[in-house]
Amino acid sequence: MSRLEFLVNTLQLAHKGDEDILETLILSAVSAHPIFDIKLNVSLTGMSDVGKTGAGMSVLGIIPEECQYETHKVSPKVLYYQAMDGYTFNNKIILLDDIVDGDTEVLKNIANTSNTPPSFTTLINQKPCQITFDHAPVVWTTRVDLIEDYQGQADRRFYTLEVKGSIDTMKHIVEMESNNIKPEKSEEWQIARTMMKTIMEQPVQVTIPVPMLDYSFIQTNSGVKFFIAMIRSIAKINATDYTEPIIASEDDIAEATRLYKSNSVQQYKLKESAVKLLDYIPRIKPTDLDFDDPDNSPNTIESIFEKAKDKLGIKIDALRKSLNSLQKKGLVNSIQGRYNRQFYYKL
User: Fold this and answer.
1) Are residues 300 and 194 in the same domain?
2) What is the distance between the alpha carbons of residues 271 and 163, in angstroms, rounded to a whole number?
3) 284 and 184 both lie in a single domain
4) What pLDDT digit, counting tens, does each position of 216-268 carry?
5) What CATH number does residue 93 fall under?
6) H-helix or E-strand spanning residue 189
7) I want to staple 181 with a disulfide (CB 3.0 to 4.6 A). Which of 39, 176, 263, 316 is the partner?
């Protein structure tokens, strides 16, 4: 068992399931060290009460306290004032729980993917004020929907994951609460905490052999950066010697590749249900025959819903929202027929 596998398995004591999400948060935490020039900021999305905050808090449970921002229910704007007061963001993870649309401008400023400390001008008491953080922190956010902002400037600073929740997760919570089980008291948990403290404190560079690196499956520059950050964190976690620079192995790169490829939400910046909905949308463009007889057309919302509702467990309002998201991403188009009926097809 690798050291990374041990950490993920240990976290199962507190948060059952969501292994890839827990693993990604561990990698994100390791990327906070200032020696790493790419930060793996993470956005956790998903319906209310599916375990987004629980996943984040579980991972924070094995992270040194000095690497954690003190509170999670805080307006991101508060960070401006703390930076002015000399608060250090060195090797720090900030979990911002239940962010709202109005937070996106602040997130754009504080969540750098680079190691450059955030610096920006804001108005304080109606006067322009230059604020510069001492280091670039790693930022985790939770919210129901994807981060959406003008030109995606905040969105592309985050590696997006969807927490869907499961019966196993719920059963585990019931079992822990009913039997007063405290995962943090276990021997494995204490070993994991000690391990993470050692890993996060080590100022060691990680080199990735370029000939071994295949990033052809990634479509964006920010995606490639996140992929590199994942490899570096995996290599640093699995290393046993921190006295000299680490070279990422084939296994390290293979695990980062598996992890990235398994996350369709990041690849498309769409919830998984919206990506799966593509399978039920016709590729054939609607014709006059569809407009004349919409009740028998495969391109209407109603027809798509009938095919997808049982397989995806989706309600028609959620389906409409997913169709709108797919259109914004340029994956689906629609034509308005008679009586304001919409007809959809894949591009």
Assistant:
1) no
2) 10
3) no
4) 999 888 899 999 999 999 999 999 899 999 999 999 999 999 999 999 888 77
5) 3.40.50.300
6) helix 187-201
7) 176
Task: Provide CB contacts within 8 A for 333, sequence distance 6+.
Answer: 327, 344, 345, 347
Highest mean pLDDT among 65-69, 267-271, 309-313: 65-69
Task: Tell me which residue range forms the domain holding 295.
Answer: 272-346
* Domain final position from 153, 169, 203: 203
Tokens of 242: 């921190």
Residues, the chain, total?
Answer: 347
Total Cβ atoms within 10 A of residue 264: 15
List the CATH number of the domain containing 296.
1.10.10.10
Q: Which residue has the tokens 């008291």?
A: 185
Considering only CA atoms, which of 91, 102, 98, 13 is closest in space to residue 58? 13
Q: Please say whether the beta carbons of 26 and 8 come within 8 A.
A: yes
- Alpha-carbon distance of 28 to 46, in angstroms, equals 19
The pLDDT-based confidence of 151 (bands split at 50, 70, 90) is: low
Q: Rounded CA gap, 94 and 198, in Å?
A: 20
Residue type, 309: K
Please check whether residue 164 is in contact with residue 44, taking contact to mean a CB–CB distance below 8 angstroms.
no
Burial class (CB in 10 A: 0-12, 13-18, 19+), 201: middle
3-state secondary structure 32-59: CCCCCCECCCEEEECCCCCCHHHHHHHH
d(CA 27, CA 44): 14
Residue with tokens 């930060």: 39
How many structural domains compose the chain?
2
Question: What 8-state DSSP symbol labels residue 294?
Answer: G
Mean pLDDT of the 338-345 span: 87
Q: Is 86 helix (H, G, I), strand (E, B) or coil?
A: coil
Residue pair 48/12 in contact (Cβ under 8 Å)? The answer is no
pLDDT digits (tens, 9 = 90+) for 62-98: 999 999 987 776 676 778 778 888 889 899 999 988 8
Residues 6+ apart with CB under 8 A from 156: 220, 222
What are the percentages of helix, strand and coil residues in the chain, rounded to 5?
A: 50, 15, 35
